[in-house]
């Protein structure tokens, strides 16, 4: 007798309900984990907020949309990081909703849910998904572009043109990788006669106008800032290192797919018990063009993005792993065939749950246990709120004015810039990166300069002393980390640059 668990029956009968349960549960998990276990924002989130509060049309970090949205979310949450974490998970939900809709149009709703379940095990959508920035915001926009792009070129739905044009424009306002990403769907459409017919209409002209209007402000900034130049190509001596970098990045993408590979291996029917009658999930026949569409956008982006990152010496694949791996689960579902047999239902369910929970367990272990095992600093354990409050209050007590800017050690300065008064971040070692504050502005309006103190004397490093020759160091301030463990006390050297009298 064939037995199907409740999960399988829900997938068959209520696929949309299963989708929302899975996606919302994972989003809630990654709102709670950083909120409860991070004392300071992860990754470059503090820098993103520091740039976002300036509302620049463009910066050296790229287009402005992600930075603006981060600042809006942070302020809306009362200057609490939970707003940014919720924004990051909203991006996750929209990404998977667009993926589900694309998959439903290609393989039907039941297979679409399984594709979402597989894709949710990709590690790129787990812990790193809370580090909101351009790479995170690009995920839902790319997913929407693929969904509405398929509606336009595969299903010939004219109504999708308007949404597609807005999504392309917003993607151009999000990441510098957008032009390279958008070349792929354009090339796919031009290479197929059926798709080319969808492009020959007035809808294409109107879409281009919408895209131009959305991207115009950033395009003007690019022209004025002379930012069109690509990074330098590698020299002959660098080719070996760049090739290793490309292999390393592509290997990292492959490791991110380990969860999908594990679930596929566990479901191999050859190793199932004899006389085992597995429940099945069926799908409608797949359009050959849809099959090509999914395979192209599942295989080409990871390969091309890894090669491009190696050529230009980038630290991550172009577009980010969450973008280039988006269709991996859907590609597996197309490869499986028209009928999916679910062997070892209980084992598959447990393995999937373990894959979803494992990144959260790793984060909690790193924050709670690692400080007792190693002296290596955990960046998210720095007491950002206490640091920001102390230096902002100290400046205001000394001068009677709110703290206008903070400089010195970039990591510490970006965290202190999260103080309630939201002081400007001034990267004094690379002032061109923060054009909203110049050295003259800092000397005139005052601010706080911070650095890591090696001892109780608090002498500033030579480079900081040269850029701020008149500063008088204060006694270093010690801060306890969220969990100190074996780590030494965090000592921060600091000095106040008093505002000059008018």
Automatic annotation (TrEMBL):
GO terms for molecular function: glycosyltransferase activity. InterPro entries: RgtA/B/C-like. The chain crosses the membrane at residues 16-39, 82-100, 112-138, 158-191, 198-221, 249-272, 293-317, 323-342, 354-373. The keyword Transmembrane helix applies. Residues 63-221 form the Glycosyltransferase RgtA/B/C/D-like domain. Its EC number is 2.4.-.-. Coiled coil: none annotated. It is an enzyme of class 2 (transferase). Keywords: Glycosyltransferase, Membrane, Transferase, Transmembrane, Transmembrane helix. This is Glycosyltransferase family 39 protein. It comes from Rhodopseudomonas palustris (strain ATCC BAA-98 / CGA009).
